[in-house]
Design goal:
- By secondary structure, the protein is of the alpha/beta class.
- It has 12 helices and 24 strands.
- α6 packs antiparallel against α7, α8 crosses α12 and α10 packs parallel to α11.
- The N and C termini lie far apart (53 Å).
- The structure holds MU-OXO-diiron.
């Protein structure tokens, strides 16, 4: 139990060894944490719990520190198992304690645990007095589930934001001013790119709504990673930028290759793009971390996608990445397709279709090369890269 500000304590768990999250969907190279908070006021409130495998030590520690019977209320900002997984075991000990959550939250808790607990459903603006502090609830629908909400602790002026503004980042330090800024921002943007991108419009609207509340925010304490205490609004400003069809003007070339011909094309295109002064990353998707490369796509203006043709389609690692790109609904990006083939060459058309479905505007007709590219072919690829770069520069 660590004090973070006034009457608020961190009672979460650090998961140093976590390497995959959401099943196999999200890689967590730096682990994560499940941040639960306790407000020890005249009334004692627990905000969120921790992921199910950690329920035992979490509950034991709470009991040792304050005594479970002294908890007056529980707030469930979000029902996903990484935050509500321990609720079932906690409620076995204190079954009558009221649970504050959104209406959707109550529905989801019932759906997961099949229990009728003492639910108090809340909407934006509803509040509970604890004594010195007051909890004010703010619905955060679809950021990133329909049940999400944040809890503002008025008095201490701390926003307990749940998933928003979080990072999968285990650190022995609690606060943003203590950790490596490069690591912190890499994890924060990766989180945004892979989880929040489809909801960017809602992110913009929510930021506007929160700023119009005109309340002081001295600290933003998310449910994963470190707490923003030094200039906490810096992460809100970043979210505002990331939600605004973000890119850094670069080009990412994604490829998958069987015998290296498509790779040669990728490298020549990259040379052409660099000739025009645009930064590029060339990524073999079958050998790279999918969430890291999605973060690179998020940062890019241009996405050029290549695969050799196999059995009338694209290679399987690329098929998975194209599915991820489609689901993330990136905005304001341009793209093109390429690849080598032996006899049929369908991959280019299929990639173009996928990019179209993803809302990525195709600005150059695809380029395909039969068999292994000649030096002439590679010059064509370089020129293709230059032309693609020119189109970006002229936009
Ligand atoms: Fe949506 Fe951290 O769970």
């Amino acid at each position: 139990m660590k004090k973070i500000k006034d009457e608020i304590y961190w009672v979460g768990v650090r998961d140093w060894e976590l390497r995959k999250f959401h099943g196999e969907e999200y890689t967590t190279h730096r682990g994560s944490s499940y941040n639960s908070y306790l407000i020890k006021d005249e009334k004692i409130a627990l905000v969120d719990t921790v992921w199910t495998p950690y329920y035992k030590s979490f509950i034991e520690e709470l009991d040792n520190n304050i005594g479970l019977d002294n908890i007056d209320l529980i707030v469930v900002n979000h029902t996903e198992q990484d935050h509500a997984g321990s609720l079932e075991y906690l409620m076995e000990k204190i079954p009558d304690v009221p649970i504050y959550c959104t209406e959707k939250g109550a529905e989801m808790i019932k759906g997961h645990f099949h229990k009728e607990w003492n639910f108090r459903t809340v909407k934006t603006g509803d509040s509970v007095d604890l004594g010195k502090n007051k909890l004010v609830f703010v619905e955060m629908k679809m950021l990133h589930w329909p049940d999400n909400m944040a809890t503002y602790v008025s008095g201490a002026n701390v926003l307990l934001s749940n998933d928003a503004f979080g990072q999968h980042y285990a650190s022995s330090y609690l606060f943003n001013d203590r950790v490596d800024q490069g690591e912190l921002y890499q994890e924060a943007i990766k989180y945004y790119a892979n989880i929040l991108t489809p909801f960017s419009k809602l992110v913009k609207a929510k930021i506007k709504e929160i700023s119009e509340l005109n309340v002081p925010i001295e600290m933003i304490a998310p449910s994963h990673g470190i707490i923003w205490r030094d200039n906490p609004m810096q992460i809100v400003e970043k979210y505002d930028q990331w939600a605004s069809d973000y890119n850094e003007g670069t080009v990412t070339i994604l490829y998958d290759t069987m015998w290296g011909a498509t790779k040669k094309m990728a490298l020549s295109m990259a040379r052409g793009i660099e000739n025009k002064g645009i930064g590029t990353k060339v990524i073999n998707v079958a050998r790279s971390d999918k969430n890291d490369l999605i973060t690179d796509v998020f940062k890019s203006k241009g996405v050029i996608v290549g695969s050799s043709t196999i059995n009338g389609g694209v290679l399987n690692a690329m098929a998975g990445i194209l599915e991820m790109i489609k689901g993330l609904k990136f905005k304001d990006k341009v793209g093109a397709a390429f690849g080598s083939y032996g006899w049929s060459g369908e991959s280019i058309k299929q990639i173009e279709e996928r990019l179209n479905q993803s809302g990525i505007e195709i600005i150059s007709d695809g380029i395909k090369i039969k068999y292994d590219p000649t030096s002439e072919n590679l010059k064509e690829c370089e020129a293709y890269g230059e032309a693609f770069a020119d189109k970006i520069l002229s936009q």
